[in-house]
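Reopening closed ticket. The problem is back. First fold of the pair:
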Amino acid sequence: MSLANSGSAHRPEVLRRKTLANNSRALIAIAAASMPMSVFWMVGGAAVPFVLAALCLAAGMVTLSLHHSGRHDEAAAGQVFAIMAMGTVLTFVDPELGDAGLGIASMGPVLASLLGRRAVRRQSWLLLAGVLAACVAASIVGAPAIPLARDLYLPVAGVAFLAALGLVAYTANRIGAAYEVHDRAQVNAYQHLIEHVRDGVLRFSSEGDLLLVSHSSEKLFGCRRFEITTSSLAERLHVLDRPAYLTAFADANIGGKARVIEVRLRRDEPGATVPSFIWVEVSFAPVIDPQETDGRHEVVALFRDVTERKNHEAAMREARRTAEETSEAKSRFLATIGHELRTPLNAVVGFSEMMTSGIGGDLSDTNREYAGLIHQSGKHLLEVVRMLLDMSRIEAGKMELQREPFQAAALVGPCLAMVDGVAKSRRVQIETDIGQNLPLLVGDERACRQILINLVSNAIKFSHDGGSVRVSLKRQGQMLNLSVSDFGVGMAPESLERIGEPFFQVQDGLSRRYDGTGLGLSIVKGLIELHGGTLRAISEIGAGTTMTVLLPINGPAINSEDTAVVTQFRKEPAAEPTIPWPEEKRKAQ
């Protein structure tokens, strides 16, 4: 298995695995080199050198096989335990407590700390303790040692000790070099990041001295980085922003808290006679060092140019102010022109009505027809002016509601009578569904009447000739549900989303089939919102529209104790859970 597919791209891990393979090859080479002499000595009656060579060869071949199969942790454990096993054999050859075998065995935990995981390191120390205990016990009881000539023991033990020492030294050198290269690469990466990041990076000592200024700061400050010092940085800050800057720096330096502030900073512009200031977002991050004893920390500050965002926010505020002033001017214009038009229109309507009634003298049929048309047009203009005045008062927040309890069901009959003539001219039948025992509704009776008349008038207008309109009134929890449904032309989903916009009509242009100003539903929506209610619409092209109004029974300020708490005189079954109001818009198929 290649190292690229080993599951880790960390350089020390890669070099650790290469070191494991090299150690296995070194064990095989040592065993191959010592095997001829070991066989010769074994023929002469000394089996210990052959045992050590065979153990070394087996350890090298097994760990190399484990390494090639990707079982690197097991390969490291095999090398550690092989060294400790060879040291244990030599320990029992020499009856003395301190010998070369114990020294070789003690190198096992050292090798485990370099190559193995936590479990291998723990097991190596336990095994070394067991070997030491066995040596002590053998010395106390005087156990016989493994027979080996003294002149043969010294070269065998020396070669084994040097091999184990060389293996550990090579491993330590490779692992140390790997971490050194890794640390240097990380430092280079961090330095490259600091030097080329778009934000200016500054590092301050615990005493507040400037230690580091990134290369990217030159563009931000408009000067070379060596020109930026602690004193010059303070001078560049706008005089009104210096207290906030010093406070935030103290919180990070002394309190160890990260802070983010926005300040104005002077930028040097070539050839400029007047200093230019830019908006900068400064992020202070304390460098927490457990070794610090004086309570101060180094601080890393990131300076980010946010002038464009600040200018955009200022432009948005100016645009919002301009829009509000324009809206107020429009409302004042509508109110003024409405009052100016209503007086002469009242005169036109009144005198035309007198003319049609014959008070001013007999008129010919043609003149009477003309007077009727003048009277009808004047009333239409008066209605338009009234709607404009209502819309301007609602937008200006000047519409005041006269809140008083009244029977909502009593509104339905008079309102339908007012639109009955239009309904009969279109042969539209109006059906009603009024709930029983409806509570008193607290609100403005005139506004609620206007809501119902506008909704029914719209339903009749957009119904087909000979169609029907359904009006229902019922209680829904703490709300009163008023629904007006027609089975006419319906609306598209994009038109539903714009319901309530002033002057919006589904059919625009000179070729539209339905007259009107587009203010009816906007006034209805405004009156409903003044009552604290909601307007919902469900429509489908060709299938009709259902407009639903939910009004709080107790008015805008709902008193839940009056509408929800019911005194129980007898035990009743638990009420069924209330089905939430569906927010759905049916689309055309």
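Second fold of the pair, where the issue appears:
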Amino acid sequence: MSYFLTKKGRVITLVVTSLLVLASIIMSFFVKSNYDMTKYLSQDSNTYKGIEVLEESFGKQTQLEVVVKGELRDAITVKQAIISMDYVDNVIFLDDYVDLSVTPIEFIPSALKDPFINGDYYKITVALGLDGYDERLDETIKEIEDLATHIRGEAVDNKYARDIANKQLLLIMVLIIPVCIILLILFTHSYIEALIVLVSLGVAIILNMGTNLLLGEISFITMTMAMALQLAMSFDYSLFFLHRLHDNDSLPKGDAIKHALKSSFKSITASSFTTIFGFVALMFMQYKIGLDIGIVLAKGIIFSYLSMIFLMPTMVYLLYPLIGKTKHKVFMPKFTKLSNKIVSLKTLFGILFILFVGFGLFLQTKTTFTYQTHSSSAGSKVYDDNEAITDKFGANNTYVILFKEQSVIDEVNLVGELSLIPEVTSVQSLVTTVDPSIPRSLIPDTIKLGFLSNGYGRIILNININKESKAYYELDQTIRDTVEETFNEAYYIGIMPSTGDIRQMVLEDNLLILILSLVLVGLVVGIVFKSLILPLLLLLVIESSIWMNIGLSTLTGDNVLFIGYLVVMSIQLGATIDYAVLVSSRYIEERKSLSKKEALHIAISKSLPTLILSALILSVAGLIEFIVSDMDAIKTIGLLLSRGTVFAFIVTTLFLPSYLYLLDKWIIKKHSQS
């Protein structure tokens, strides 16, 4: 690597970096975001197959519910305006069933009127002739929103998710970068160091964003959080290098940089590869959102690592005189007294760690998980509209059943059984639309093709439950069991059945991801330290912080989004094990010439500045995502990451030293032989 510090090596590094950055900036404009979480389902899943059958047999369609406050004539005016809009296939209101010009509202039966009118609120149902994720619907939805008091539907949720992701992607970075600059200035030795760190990591982020084009598209979850997380998780590497650089600042420039890179290389490599392999574990999920997140974030850490190894030393070499000229007071204390106190209380902290592990593990087993990734958070317009319509007209969750056509009597019997389910508010099918005794050959195609096509029948249920709960999943299973008693081949489409499929997959993925991430991360630590007991210790330390992080939701009464848990588990394990690696490597290094207590004292005091700055940046990044985002998936990941980083810092600083001291005989003996 010394070659890259020569004049020719520096020129090659800067030229290649500049060309790659330019290409990546151009490529980043063509990266598309995906908002359809069903695309990540296994191709063997019922929902995935059902969507293919639905589109082949009945085409693409989605529905909106539009509520107008005012008078009856206002609702009719809005209906007429919507009919003429692009992509509108059908608009249904009370006047489709009753001639309102001659029949007074008060004479209409409640069973017919109530689904459409509640006081001075009027509900109109709009059928759109495109998939709910199609961006071409955005303008139509905007036109309807301008006329409506409230609006809800899958297409509205998707448009909202796109708008939020696009706006908040930039906002999150705008908020995080100043925080990073302030913290870097406060806790580094020179103003120019902050610039070097941000440029080096900025280059890595741009390269990652641009190369996302090679994936075709990435999920909105990945797009929204990737830049902030890559920035926050990569700070460690630059801090390891800079602190080692100042340990060697008495040497000539070239020698100081070489020694700093050499002495920090093991920690940087271990830290980056534990993070990378934490994300690699996600790639093995059946639910392919894990592959999407895993590839993008692992790729980002690789770019950060390469930037740290090649670009940052080059920039330090070129700007070395300015580092000296822009030195300022370091606001980070020495932590001598604190490290002495931690060492003196090592026995107490060792006992507390056992209690911490047990309590965290117990709490996690009591955690309630949710599985919908597309829900909006309280306070957002989409959430408020949903609540307002539910308050006036009840919850409405569309559940589509596709079945291989059999006899009419089978369909009649199934519709009858489905109608008896209390949570099913309505059933639409060919046998409820047309008298079942009429031969199907006599039914007009305009009616028949809405429910029967390509050998498949369609039944549309409206469900009055749309929030995840035990009853939510029991209802989904009840519907499936009812259908499968009659039809051998059936598919289920809608938020409820797709969430059920996602739930089943991620539950199956959980154990695999946990074991795989532990094995891969532990393998990296074991290879770097050439030890068996050390990776087991470090994994237990960080895993205990994950258990407490997730388990704390039990005490606060919050549900945890399961995909958020899996992602944060990998991030927290892969990223914050860096803290344990740093303290352990420093302890092992100091033990070559010092006693256990002295080595432990120096390891803690020397590591704390890096740990505090790194933990602050990562936890603040997560906190900003939690505060800024209106999407539950992003908020969950942000909160868990912020809180988990704090727990990881605590266990690494207070509990890990106790066990490095206790297990010294096995840890140091192993290393002395290497």
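Update: turned out to be a display glitch only; the data is intact. The chain is about 65% helix and 10% strand. The radius of gyration is 30 Å. Please close again.
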